[in-house]
Sequence to fold (169 residues):
Amino acid sequence: MFARVKLDAALTQGDLIENCPLVSIHTGADALNLSDPAIYWWPARVVVLTQSCDLAQPKTDVVLEAQVHDAQKLIDDGVLKAAMIRDQVRRHQVFGWYFLPEVIESVSLTESLIDLRDVHSVPRAVLEQLIADGKRVASLQSPYREHLAQHFAVTYMRIALPEPYRTAG
Fold:
């Protein structure tokens, strides 16, 4: 499922990268001041979502990615229940979450979940610098990379109705 790649290998879809700085506008309890918003950042493990063809043909200076969360931490923080991860997320039946199993032999990764509803745009130069600094942990291999891309697409392309159809009777 995962492979270690050479340090000089090009950035590609499915790369897992450590300590990527993610940025957000703080919308806490204080009044939101849009003329001078409170910005914060944090380092995170991320997975690259931008298509490999766009990265290979330098068509973009900005790369789309999603944060990779340790599954146990999500359980401990009360974000998800262990039963939901075990029974639904692992089988990819929950929109917006993508399961990554624990891998010990080739790459040391704990059971993790990708939150596909919390995507970030990061300058390509930042990711390339992180890769040069040895922060690429691994890369998803085919067909898992394509499966992730499909799951990401389905998360955003599905169409929900505001209410169920009414039936006669």
